Every structure is written in C-alpha cells, then in structure tokens.
From TrEMBL:
<dbReference type="Pfam" id="PF00106">
    <property type="entry name" value="adh_short"/>
</dbReference>
<comment type="similarity">
    <text>Belongs to the short-chain dehydrogenases/reductases (SDR) family.</text>
</comment>
<keyword id="KW-0521">NADP</keyword>
<protein>
    <recommendedName>
        <fullName>carbonyl reductase (NADPH)</fullName>
        <ecNumber>1.1.1.184</ecNumber>
    </recommendedName>
</protein>
<dbReference type="InterPro" id="IPR002347">
    <property type="entry name" value="SDR_fam"/>
</dbReference>
<dbReference type="InterPro" id="IPR036291">
    <property type="entry name" value="NAD(P)-bd_dom_sf"/>
</dbReference>
<dbReference type="InterPro" id="IPR020904">
    <property type="entry name" value="Sc_DH/Rdtase_CS"/>
</dbReference>
<keyword id="KW-0560">Oxidoreductase</keyword>
<dbReference type="InterPro" id="IPR045313">
    <property type="entry name" value="CBR1-like"/>
</dbReference>
Length: 283
C-alpha cells in the first residue's frame, strides 16, 4: 500500500507547529511541515527532530500560486495523492491602533486567510485520496462578525443557492468597500471589540473560511472525503497573545479529531466545530 501523507500550512510556529507535532505522533504516514519562510520552517523541523519526531519540510506561501503548484507537483511525484490537508496559515492585525491602513489590512487578510485557503484547495482537491480529511482552521469570531452584518448580507451568505464563486465575490467586495470606507453602509461588520479586538477583516475572512468548508462539502460528496472547519480556541501564540488560557498543543484537540476521523466515517462533513462539537455559528 502506498505511503499516506499529511500537509499542514503555516506550521513553523503556533498551532500549526503543534498540529505537525500531534500528527507525527498520531498519523500513520509522512507529515509535511510547510512554511512560507524556508529558514523558519527548517528550524521548526530541527526542533521537532530534537523531540524524536521526523516531519518533512516543504516551502509553501499560500498567497503564491507558483508555491502551491510546487507542493502539488511534489506530492504527486512522491505519493500520487494527498490524505490529510490542514489549512492553518492565517494572519490577523490584532492591535486596534495598528497604523496599517484598514484597506491594506483587509486586502492582506482576505488574500491570505480566505483566498489562499481557497486556492490551495482548488489545486490539491483533485489529488485527494478516498477517505481524505480536510480541516480549515477558522475562528469563533465568525459568529460575532456574522451578527454584525446586515440582514441582506446574512441572507446572501446563508442562502442554500450560494456558490463558492459568489462567496469569493462577497469577500472581494468587502475589500473594495473597506478601501473606499463604505463597508458599514454595504452591510459588512465593524471590528469586534467585546473583550478582545478582532479587526473587521479577520472576522469576515473567517466567515469565508467556515462557509468555504460548507460549500466544498456540498460539491465533494464522494469517496468518503470529509471537509470541515473548526475553531481551535483562544491560544497562546503570536496571533492569540500570551493571556490566552491554552497552549498550542492543547489547541490541537479539535483539529486532530477532524483530521483523524476514522476510515469509513460518513460524517461530519461541511460542519464547523468547537471543542469537538458541532458549532452552529450562523443559525
Ligand atoms: N491563537 C488563537 O487564539 C487562535 C484562535 C482561533 C483561530 N486561530 C487560527 O489558528 C491559525 C493559526 O494561528 P496561530 O495562533 O498559530 O498564529 P501564529 O502563531 O501567528 O501562526 C500563523 C502561521 O501562519 C503562517 N502564515 C501566515 N501567512 C502565511 C502565508 N501566506 N503562507 C503560509 N503561511 C503563512 C505564519 O508564518 P510566518 O511565521 O512566516 O508569519 C505562521 O506560521 C490561524 O488560522 C488563526 O486564525 C488562532
């Protein structure tokens, strides 16, 4: 039987690195730690080697189509397929007083968190083996951001007729409206500031990521492939800050549950999870 293979994006640190550690211990196959920066990625692999673990490394910037194509070529050459894909790479402008203009924040956040995730799926889904597992790392902030949207936009996003193409257009339109500072009038949410600060772009991008899993699941209803999204919970990382209650290793519990759903499981598929439980964030 051919070797099974798992890929984690944005895995040189934080929750991504912890998920590579967990997969090295629990997944029966090769595990690729990928990172946009080769030096940082190789250093992370060396650190895991010191723990007695043996991930492989590939450079991957999810905003670069060329980089995504190189990954696909490597997987096809060495394995002929892909068994587990964890879309973890993400960014957040987490300071309310960040001097970066909000139009640039919106562009960069949607380009990475939503479009990068979508692009890697479009490239790698054709090589998913039967019984593959795909997990998008989202955030529960999508519920608060969704509640901050106009009813019209909420209806569009949750319409059973919504397509992936239309979702991408809504994400693109969000960036344009932020650039023109008309996003509130267009029905998009403001930053979430209850307890924490989440930029409007982060919340909207994570709505996109969670809905992407729902829409992809509707299109891929074969071969036992299961696609889901989850919130890993507030976690002590560069993105989450040092006040968070859990470590990156603890944050892997729900993503690992979804990535390692036993063979022949007929679900969950197209759902969002939190604490290993389905999270109905837009109902
Ligand atoms: N921490 C939390 O409390 C929390 C809560 C809910 C959801 N999440 C989600 O969990 C995921 C991981 O977050 P984290 O807390 O571990 O953050 P983190 O420590 O900041 O790590 C983010 C990772 O994503 C990588 N990345 C960013 N842009 C990339 C790109 N274009 N291509 C490839 N990799 C890229 C970063 O690489 P560099 O090192 O090169 O920047 C880094 O490895 C994110 O999707 C985040 O939204 C986190």
């Amino acid at each position: 039987m051919s070797t099974r293979v798992a890929v984690v994006t944005g895995a040189n640190k934080g929750i991504g690195l912890a998920m590579v550690r967990a997969l090295c211990k629990q997944f029966d196959g090769d595990v690729y730690l990928t990172a946009r920066n080769e030096e940082r990625g190789k250093k992370a692999v060396e650190d895991l080697e010191k723990e007695g673990l043996h991930p492989k490394f590939l450079q991957l910037d999810i905003t670069s189509q060329e980089s995504i194509e190189v990954i696909k070529k490597t997987l096809v050459e060495h394995y002929g397929a892909l068994d587990v894909l964890i879309n973890n790479a993400g960014i957040h402008y987490s300071q309310a007083n960040d001097p970066t203009p909000i139009g640039i924040q919106a562009h960069n956040t949607i380009t990475t968190n939503f479009t990068g995730t979508r692009n890697i799926c479009q490239e790698l889904f054709p090589i998913l083996r039967p019984q593959s597992r795909v997990v998008h790392i989202s955030s529960e902030v999508c519920e608060l951001s969704f509640k901050g949207m106009s009813k019209d936009l909420q209806m569009k996003l949750t319409s059973p007729a919504l397509t992936e193409h239309e979702l991408a257009k809504i994400m693109e339109n969000f960036v344009h409206t932020v650039e023109q500072d008309i996003y509130k009038a267009a029905g998009y949410p403001s930053p979430v500031t209850s307890g924490f600060y989440f930029s409007q772009a982060y919340g909207v991008s994570k709505i996109g990521v969670s809905l992407l899993a729902e829409l992809q699941a509707k299109c891929i209803m074969k071969k036992g492939i299961l696609i889901n999204s989850c919130c890993p919970g507030w976690t002590r990382t560069d993105l989450g800050g040092n006040r968070a209650p859990q470590s990156p290793d603890e944050a892997t519990e729900t993503p690992m549950y979804l990535a390692l759903l036993p063979p022949k499981s007929d679900g969950p598929h197209g759902k969002m999870f939190r604490n290993k439980t389905i999270y109905n964030w837009h109902s």
